[in-house]
Design brief:
The chain has 681 residues and is mainly β. Strand 16 and strand 17 form a beta hairpin. It is built from no helices and 64 strands. Strands 50, 52, 53, 54, 56 and 57 form a 6-stranded mixed sheet that branches. A 4-stranded antiparallel sheet has the order 2-1-3-4, with no helix packed on it. It starts with 12 loop residues before the first strand and ends with a strand. The radius of gyration is 63 Å and the shape is rod-shaped.
Amino acid sequence: SLGDDLSDHSGVQVVLDGLTNLTTFTDAAGDFSFNGAVPGNYQITLSKNGFKLRNLVVTLPADDARYVLPYTVEMTLSYGILKGQVTLENATDHSGTAVNLAGTSYSAFTDSAGNWAMSIPEGSYSGGLQVSQSGYVGASDSTTLTIGAKNAVVVDTIMLNHLTGSISGLVQDSAGKALAGVQLTDTLSGTTTLSNSDGSFTISQVAVGSHDLALTLSGYVTEVVAVTVTSGATTDLSATPLQLTPFSFSGSVSLGDDLSDHSGVQVVLDGSSNLTTNTQADGSFNFSGAVPGNYQLTFSRNGFSSQTLSISIASDATSYILPYSITLSRLEGVVKGVVSLSDQLGHSGVLVEVVGTTFTATTNALGEWSMKIPVGNYSDGIRYQKAYYQSALTPETFTVTDYGDHVAPAVNLVQISAQVSFNATAMGTCSEISVHLSGTKGAAVGYSARFIVNQQGNLPATELPLGDYTVTVACAVNGWESYTFDTSLSSGVLALTLDAVTLRQSFVNINEQDIYTNNGLVTLSIGNTDALEMKIEEGIHQGEWIAFSEYYNHTLSAGDGTKTVTVRFRDIGGVELSSVQDSIKLDTSLNAVSFMTSGASTKGDLLHFALDLDGELEAKVSATVNGLITGLPLLDNGFGGDTTAQDGIYERDYLIGSALDINQPASAFVTDVAGNTLTLN
């Protein structure tokens, strides 16, 4: 028997040595027999490759022609050792490789160092070794191996190479932009490559199996991606690009609670990464790519004190936020100046603006203004603005220093407009009252506008250019008078309220409601919706009843003075209606008491003009001295050399600014309110 674990016991050589020398082999059942063995003493030798040699002594009896050995001979295996080493390409752990002795059931597995050993029966084996490991190219060795009992046979080291495939893909940042120069490392083999300019990469000859792919780029958080590689194939990751997130460092800067725009602060990060950025309007800033490490952080902006501080970004901080806000202190100097308003005693309310900035100031009653602004150069000038005045821009470039003063040139603003308000109503019910303004003189020339008063009869407050205007008030429905008058907007008056007007259905207007006339022949404008006849009365004139007419030429009674015209009406039934009247001042003469000049003999003196019009008020008077002054207005308002306002004596002081030799008479030109004129020397 070759053992209970074997079913085939054949091949054992049995040698009978004695009186007869015979040899045979066992069959599969382990049986053997000799024919022709004569009785006597014998030695039986049993041998088989891989088993220990057995020697038996037997005696064949003479009386037994068919002798059977009374017991089964047990053959014992004879073992030797077969061992070696199998290493795996680019591996530190070489365990788990299967080593098989071809043609047998003998096998072994490697340990972590790749060593293996197996105990096999002695003998000669011609099938060689077969070596295999998952993920590796198998190997075989057909060398015939001879194993001796209790001997160790060491075979040569065998190295198995990986089964390989490839990895390809794209690398992008979190915004989808391709990243070049990203290092991709197979953590198993240590193989590395760099991404191309378009973010693409390929790693070839990668061992099959599961791998961790590490992606690193300065300024970005390292990412590790799991990848499975199959033999002879490319694992393409392009459909879902690999993404790297930049290290982020952010914070905020304030320029003070009085400012809403905190932009333009330069923030410099100096250390493991050297980066520069600027704050947004809300003061926020952000660095992308600030790797962990120690830094010096500097904040600076023109006109503000700089700040420097040290920070440390921890290695595990992929997104670091400065835990407090930085406030920069403003470096300031003073800009100041004086603004005057033409024809005004007070000069307050002028808005002063440093152009290109948010810095403004407002003048006080003396026209003085000042403001604190950050130090620096300002090249866009200073703008001055006030309602009803021509704005001014001084295109100066100036520098403001810390705690220094800059005095701007004095500026005078000239009034160009004024606000007009007005109330117009009508007797009875007029559905719509309009006010038409037409410019006739000065800056008002060419101005024309029509307004509708509201239910209370108020004209919307309207800003108008300075100058003279003709104002016409009318009802949209026939039967009401139209009222026309002249007004003037002059420098020095910012808001003018015109006298209220009430349109009448029964009325008379002399010369379109003029106050004065120097002509005794006047035109009457007459209205009455129910009148058939009318009668004109004035002074001693008592007219007759005549047919109603909207216009009538009337000669005033003799003599200057106030003339009152009364118009009486009768309707179709002869019933007398309410009468109406209007007055006008007839002034046909203009007299001067005296006209004198005095007080000037040399440069720097005041030449004084005085014209006495015997109490005549509101006249327009000017003086001319050929070679010196032309059309100088003489005043009766208490200013400019006039002693007493509204006394009918028109005066003016004129400064002699240069040395002149003049021997010319002074001339005065007068026009009174009635249109009478007078020239005097």
